[in-house]
Structures are given as structure tokens and as C-alpha cells.
Amino acid sequence: MVIKKEETISIKIYRVNISVILTIMLTCNEKPKDILLMTYVVALTGGIGSGKSTVADAFANLGVPLIDADVIARQVVQLGTDALSQIVTRYGNNILLADGSLNRAVLRQKIFSEQQEREWLNSLLHPLIQQETQRRITATKEPYLIWVIPLLIENNLFSQADRVLLVDVDKEIQLTRITSRDNITRQQAKQILSAQTTQKERLACADDVINNNGNFVELSSMVSILHQQYLDFLLLPNLTKKF
Ligand SMILES: CC(C)(COP(=O)(O)OP(=O)(O)OC[C@H]1O[C@@H](n2cnc3c(N)ncnc32)[C@H](O)[C@@H]1O)[C@@H](O)C(=O)NCCC(=O)NCCS
Ligand SMILES: Nc1ncnc2c1ncn2[C@@H]1O[C@H](COP(=O)(O)OP(=O)(O)OP(=O)(O)O)[C@@H](O)[C@H]1O
Fold it and tell me: What's the fold here for domain 2-65+143-235?
């Protein structure tokens, strides 16, 4: 089920901006794509294995641009990057695979078993990920984009989003999906969950919630409904309309 919460302050600000833009458009006789410089940012968040990538793929199939923090996190530690050198300096060559790339499974084990190591890695990578994210948001021209950001709440990144879409899933289903996808034990999966915020906290921050306890078909139809709602809101602005 897709749940929508009451209109938020950030939405109100954005809608005022949209109305200003439309006024300028009418005055200048410009086309929307020439004037509509701001892309509406929908932050897609949720716990590990909740289904963020699956939801993001469904939006992408509808033509919505994606910016995925997990993908950027991989790019900033590619071969030859300064971040990868710093990781090797801290952990030694054992943190690399035979081809010189990062051994993600080993690093995952380290950072989710020791908080200090997680904080160190976060302080190295998060500024780099944020910088690249901002660059991509600014470069996007479509009416809205999906920003896949697992740690939106943990890192207090709300000011960079216009709306928060949560993928919510019951913990038991989540544990089953993570352990079968990542080939890790329940204990390891629980360790990762305990490094993330709670379901209650996530629900309190969300504007829209997709419940992913069901199957892929149900998930995809919820995405289609939300996509239509976002487009209706953005392309036919009506200041009396609730969103
Ligand atoms: C530790 C790493 C190498 C493990 O890689 P792996 O391929 O196994 O996992 P992947 O990158 O796909 O992340 C899977 C999920 O783990 C969770 N996760 C990853 N890093 C963190 C973290 N620092 N704190 C809490 N949860 C995290 C997120 O839910 C994420 O979606 C990797 O997660 C990483 O580089 N993490 C630090 C960067 C980061 O914080 N990424 C999260 C998005 S900003
Ligand atoms: N509705 C569903 N029914 C069955 N399996 C699902 C469903 N949604 C997602 N999955 C599976 O659950 C696993 C986790 O989904 P996905 O990778 O999309 O989550 P994620 O939130 O992006 O994970 P991560 O936080 O690790 O990046 C995947 O193997 C995916 O195929």
C-alpha cells in the first residue's frame, strides 16, 4: 500500500518556487525546459535489503533519472582513487582483491563489527559521495529525480531532498532477503541493521511509504501510482491542491 502523509514545509516552499517559475515562463514566453531549472528531489530511503534498488529500477523503467549513493560509493573507491589508497594505508593490502580492487566483503566485515572503523570510513567517503551527488542533482534537467540514499536519516541529509519516500519491510522478511542475497548469516545481517536507524524513526520522517512485504508485481504497481502522483503535482501545479 502507498501511504501519503500531510503536505510538508519543504513541499510548500517548492510549490511557491514553481508558481514563481510559471509566472516567469508566462511573462517571458519561454518553454518549461528552458526555465524549469530546479529538479524536484525525491529521496528514496530504507534499511539494508528493504528493496530500494528494486524500487529505483522500477522508477528508472518509467524514465525517471536516478542518483544512487551506493553506486557513487563504489565509484569513489575505484582503482587509482585517493580514497582507495587511504583504505589500503589503514588496512594493508589484504583489503584488496587479486586485481587490486577493493575487497568489499572484507571491508564490510570490518566496519560492521567495529563502530570506530565504520566512523572512519564514513568520514572518508561520505563527503566525497555528497559532493558527487550534488554535482549530479545540479546537472539533472528532468522534472524530478529519485535519489537513492540509504543513510538519509542517519546523516541528516533532509535539506537536500524535497520529499522522502520510504521503502518499508517487516524485519523478518528483510533478514530473509538479505541473508539469501548476500550470503551472510542472520547474525551478520542483524549487525548491519543495528548500525542503521530504526523502522520507527524512518516512518516518522517519510512523506510517502511503499510497503515491500508483497511481491514484485505489487511493488511495481505502487511505483507507477507514485510516479503519476509526482508528475501530476509537478507538471500541473495548483496551489490549492493537496499533496
Ligand atoms: C562497506 C562496503 C564496502 C560494503 O560493500 P557491499 O557491496 O557489501 O554493500 P553496499 O555498498 O551495496 O551497501 C549495502 C547497504 O549497506 C548499508 N551500508 C553501507 N554502508 C553503511 C554504513 N557506513 N553505515 C550503515 N549502513 C551502511 C546500506 O544500507 C547499503 O545500502 C560499502 O557498503 C561501503 O563502502 N560503505 C561505506 C559507504 C556508505 O556509507 N555507503 C552507504 C551509502 S552513502
Ligand atoms: N517484493 C519483493 N519480493 C521478493 N524479493 C524482493 C522484493 N523486493 C526486493 N526483493 C529482493 O530482496 C533483495 C533486496 O532488494 P534490493 O537489493 O532492492 O534492496 P536494497 O534496499 O537496495 O538493498 P541494499 O540496502 O543492500 O542496497 C534483492 O535480492 C531483491 O531481489
Answer: Rossmann fold (3.40.50)
Q: Can you read off the three cell numbers belonging to residue 167?
A: 521503502
Single-letter residue type at 200:
K
Give the pLDDT confidence score for residue 5 in this predicted structure: 52
Domain with CATH 3.40.50.300 in the chain: 2-65+143-235
In this structure, the residue with its CA closest to atom 23 of ligand 2 is 49
pLDDT in tens, 191-230: 999 999 999 999 999 999 999 999 999 999 999 999 999 9
Q: What is the pLDDT, as a whole number, of residue 37?
A: 61
- Cα(149) to centroid(ligand 2), Å: 15
Which strands form 144-148's sheet, in the order they lie side by side? 2-4, 208-211, 163-168, 40-45, 144-148, 66-68
pLDDT given at position 243? 60
| Distance (Å, whole) CA 53 – CA 177 | 13
